[in-house]
Amino acid sequence: MRSIPLFSLLLAGWFVVPAHADEAQDWLARMGQAEQQQSFRGTFVYERNGSFSTHNIWHRVQDGKVRERLLQLDGSAQEVVRIDGHTQCVSGTLIAGLGDSPNSAARALDPQKLKNWYDIAVIGKSRVAGRAAVIVSLMPRDQHRYGFELHLDKETGLPLKSLLLNDKGQLLERFQFTQLDTAKVPSDSDLQAGDDCKVVTLDSDKASAVKTAQVWHSDWLPPGFELTSSSARKDPQTKTQVNSLMYDDGLARFSVFLEPLNGATVTDTRTQLGPTAAVSRRLTTPQGEMMVTVVGEIPIGTAERIALSMRTDATATK
Question: What is residue 127's predicted lDDT score, i.e. its pLDDT?
Fold first, then answer.
């Protein structure tokens, strides 16, 4: 799961008089702590574009490490194992939104920061997987990000359900536990990856990450989004270097990929799959033609503007 995972339900809760914002921020802080302190096991459903999938999850916090295993129960066999947010192995192609990038470490939520970009409020109560929950809404203050509705477990603060909503209140993505056990800590065997789970290796290193951050920047970013990581790797097919940069606002996240075309003929594209936008644009730079691709859970118009804003830092390439 993501740090602010995928998690929420019907809009009846929106008509409840919001509680004081401080209470909502306290619940968000508690949620962030729970995912770093609370072991659990459970089953959840994930929905996007009208398609559902069911997953088992084992999440263990022990000796300062958070180890997690996800296993899809229907459709093609898909599995992922993570330690402290870093993907260790993957089998199949895990559904977008559940996988995240291999080097995306878990982040601590900062409610004080989030309130600059979202209106945060407790809007009601609910019951999920047989457990009492508090509903917290995060509504964006601009058109460059989506809204969340989180159903947080009253006992532990864990997210039991999450809805991701667009500016019209339409559901883009849903995560919801159907069963959750916080009493029994997952065992070593529960967290052991299957034979088909292939080890994930990263081609980038610290030096290439620093170089990437120096060479590429964006002339425009939505308010609140900051560069959190960058890396460079060689594409196994084209043998060219692909630079990647990741940005987030403390909740929403998107990635930018930049690859030289080397004379290849490509076309600009823009696609939307549920909450995930993917926009590719050709850019002419002093180093030649580049393909810039922006992928993330942001509105497609925002993704397109970011793609067109990418620039090289000429002083870093001399």
Answer: 98
Q: How far apart are CA 211 and CA 244, in angstroms?
A: 11
Mean pLDDT for the chain overall: 84
Q: SS3 for the chain, per residue?
A: CCCCCCCCCCHHHHHCCCCCHHHHHHHHHHHHHHHHHCCEEEEEEEEECCEEEEEEEEEEEECCEEEEEEEECCCCCCEEEEECCEEEEEECCCCCCCCCCCCCCCCCCCHHHHCCCEEEEEEEEEEECCEEEEEEEEEECCCCCCEEEEEEECCCCCEEEEEEECCCCCEEEEEEEEEEECCCCCCCCCCCCCCCCEECCCCCCHHHHHHHHHHEEECCCCCCCEEEEEEEEECCCCCCEEEEEEEECCCCEEEEEEEECCCCCCCCEEEEECCEEEEEEEEEECCEEEEEEEEECCCHHHHHHHHHHEEECHHHHC
Tens of pLDDT, residues 99-114: 444 444 455 688 999 9
Closest CA to 258 of 210, 307, 221: 307
User: Beta strands 288-296 and 253-260: pairing type?
Assistant: antiparallel
Could you say which residues of the chain have pLDDT below 50? 1-19, 96-97, 99-105, 204-213, 315-318
Determine the Cα–Cα distance for residues 5 and 148; give it in Å rounded to an integer.
10
pLDDT the model gives residue 269: 95
Please state which of the four CATH numbers 3.30.200.100, 3.30.1250.10, 3.50.50.60, 3.40.50.720 is assigned to the domain occupying 206-317.
3.30.200.100
CA atoms within 13 A on the CB side of 27: 27
Written as six digits, the tokens of 62 are 């022990």
Half-sphere exposure of 73 (CA within 13 A, CB side): 11
Q: Locate the domains of the chain by residue range.
A: 11-199, 206-317
Q: How far apart are CA 268 and CA 168, in angstroms?
A: 27
Domain 11-199, what architecture?
Answer: Clam (2.50)
